[in-house]
Amino acid sequence: MPKTKNPIVAAILGLLFGPFGYLYIAWTYAIATFLVVVLFAIIVAILGFWISPWVKFLILPVMAWRAHKIVCIRNDIIESGHEVPALNSFPFAVMAAVTVMVYVGMAWGGFLGFQLGVEKLLDGSIIRGLFTILITTPIFALISKFLFKFIAAGIEMLFARDSDNVFFPS
Q1: Contact partners, residue 12, CB within 8 Å, separation at least 6
Q2: Could you give the maximum distance between any two Cα atoms of the chain, in Å?
Q3: What span, in angstroms and rounded, lies between the C-alpha atoms of 66 and 37?
Q4: How confident is the model over 57-108, as pLDDT tens digits?
Q5: Nearest partner of 21 among 72, 74, 64, 65, judged by Cα
Q6: How many C-beta neighbours within 10 Å does residue 41 have?
Q7: Which of 12, 23, 63, 83 has its CA 20 to 30 A from that of 33?
Q8: Domain limits at 76?
Q9: 165 located within any domain
Q10: How many domains does the chain have?
């Protein structure tokens, strides 16, 4: 039976080491999370966008938050006393990792909109800059969330089709 983990330790390791901090949860989580982060970067590049070096300051806190949530959900499953699924299996780790990709994508979309708004403000276009920050940024975040959730559903169909994803809130 898998042992419970400390969510705070998971969050700190996720914040400091990104997907490699997920080794604390299990090696399958680290590999799955690393692969979806690489996939995220490939998708962004294919779409023709660039990733600012500043994005890591947004992605790492998201990874820390998701590591905390993943460990809390795992602990709840373990402590429930019900039949414990293969928590450290690759399909289960993929279900957790795709949630990381969705929220990283959402944060990136928001960051992209915010950065465009700041650039407009710095160019002296105050109205356009504020419009971009207040209106366009949430739209970019939502579009990114839906895009990466669609991709996550495809990944789940390939690797974890036999179970419901317990890591996405209902």
Answers
A1: 21, 64
A2: 61
A3: 13
A4: 888 999 999 999 999 998 988 888 776 668 888 888 888 899 999 999 999 8
A5: 64
A6: 14
A7: 83
A8: 7-159
A9: no
A10: 1
